[in-house]
Specification:
With 275 residues, this protein is mainly β. The chain has 2 domains: 147 residues; 84 residues, no CATH class. The protein contains 2 helices and 22 strands. The strands form 6 sheets. Strands 1, 2, 5, 6, 7, 17, 18, 19 and 22 form a 9-stranded antiparallel sheet that branches. The longest helix has 8 residues. The radius of gyration is 29 Å and the shape is elongated.
Length: 275
C-alpha cells in the first residue's frame, strides 16, 4: 500500500493528570481543547549521529545515533482564549469574577459647548458603565492636542473637566474634545494574563487526518498519537492593516510515554492508518 498526504489534521489535546487552565480544572484524559481550524500541521522527527573517523581520507568508521526527537507543529487560523492559555500558560479571568467589573481603556472624541464648563456624559455617549477612575481630556485643533485639561474622576457616568490655571468662560463655543477614560465591563469579556513563572503544560495529543491510496484514490482515516507533548510557550501577535491575517503557531515537543491502549512500551509517537 502506498499513499499520499494532502489534508490537514484535526487535533485534540487531553489532560495528562489533573490540569488547570485558567479557572477550569480538567481531570486525567479529559479533552481540554479541540483544534479544527488549522492551516498546516507537521510531524518532524530527527536524531543526532556522531561518527568515528580515521585512516587515509579520514573516512567514517563507526556511527552512534541518539537524541531522537519528534516535534508536532500546528499553525492555526484562529485563536481562542483557551487556546492562548494552553499555548502560553496564561491565566484566564472572566469579567464576571472581577469586583467592580473589568476596567477597559477607551478614548472618544466629541464636540462640546464649553462656554459654561466642560461636562461630558460618557455613559450616554458610549452606552456603557463608566469606571470611576481618573480620566484625561484634551482640546483638539486640526487633529493635534492644543490644550491639556485638568484630569478628573467621572461620577455616575458623567465627568467635568477644568482648564489648567484658566477660568470658565475664557474659552467659548463648541470645541473638539478628546477624552481618555475607562469603562467597567461585568460580562462578555475575558482577560488573559502572562505571568513570568507560568508556562504551557503537558498533554496527550491525538490528530486525525486522511491519507489517499495510490491504487484506487480512496481516502483512508489516519491518526497521529503522541502520548506526551510539551507545548513551547512561544507566541507572536502580528498585526497589520493589509496582507494575510495572522496565524498562530503551536509547537509541541514529544516525550516518551505509554499510549492509552498499549502499556508495554514507551513511544514518542504512533501512526495509525485505517483502510
Amino acid at each position: 500500500m502506498k499513499f499520499g498526504v494532502r489534508e490537514i489534521c484535526d487535533v485534540v489535546l487531553r489532560a495528562k493528570g489533573t490540569v488547570k487552565v485558567g479557572e477550569t480544572t480538567f481531570s486525567h484524559d479529559e479533552p481540554v481543547i479541540y483544534f479544527d481550524s488549522a492551516k498546516t500541521s507537521t510531524v518532524e522527527g530527527s536524531a543526532t549521529t556522531v561518527y568515528a573517523t580515521g585512516g587515509r581520507g579520514n573516512n567514517k568508521l563507526l556511527a552512534w545515533e541518539g537524541e531522537k526527537s519528534v516535534t508536532f507543529t500546528m499553525e492555526d487560523a484562529l485563536l481562542s482564549p483557551l487556546g492562548f492559555s494552553i499555548l502560553s500558560g496564561a491565566g484566564l479571568v472572566d469579567a464576571s469574577q472581577v469586583k467592580g467589573g473589568m476596567k477597559v481603556h477607551t478614548t472618544l472624541t466629541t464636540v462640546v459647548d464649553v462656554t459654561s464648563g466642560i461636562t461630558v456624559d460618557l455613559a450616554e455617549l458610549t452606552g456603557k458603565e463608566i469606571a470611576e477612575e481618573k480620566a484625561y481630556a484634551f482640546i483638539m485643533k486640526d487633529g493635534q492636542i492644543a490644550e491639556r485639561l485638568e484630569p478628573a474622576i467621572p461620577s455616575d457616568g458623567s465627568v467635568t473637566f477644568t482648564r489648567k490655571g484658566k477660568a470658565v468662560g475664557e474659552l467659548t463655543g463648541e470645541q473638539t474634545v478628546m477624552i481618555d477614560f475607562y469603562v467597567s465591563v461585568a460580562t462578555g469579556a475575558v482577560e488573559m494574563t502572562i505571568e513570568p513563572d507560568k508556562f504551557g503544560g503537558f498533554y496527550y495529543l491525538e490528530a486525525s487526518t486522511l491519507f489517499r491510496r495510490q491504487d484506487n484514490g480512496q481516502d483512508m482515516a489516519a491518526a497521529f498519537v503522541i502520548p506526551k507533548v510539551k507545548i513551547q510557550s512561544n507566541f507572536t501577535f502580528a498585526m497589520a492593516s493589509s496582507g494575510d491575517p495572522s496565524t498562530f503557531t503551536f509547537t509541541m515537543d514529544a516525550f516518551p510515554d505509554y499510549t492509552k491502549f498499549d502499556p508495554t512500551k514507551q513511544v514518542l509517537f504512533a501512526l495509525q492508518i485505517i483502510e
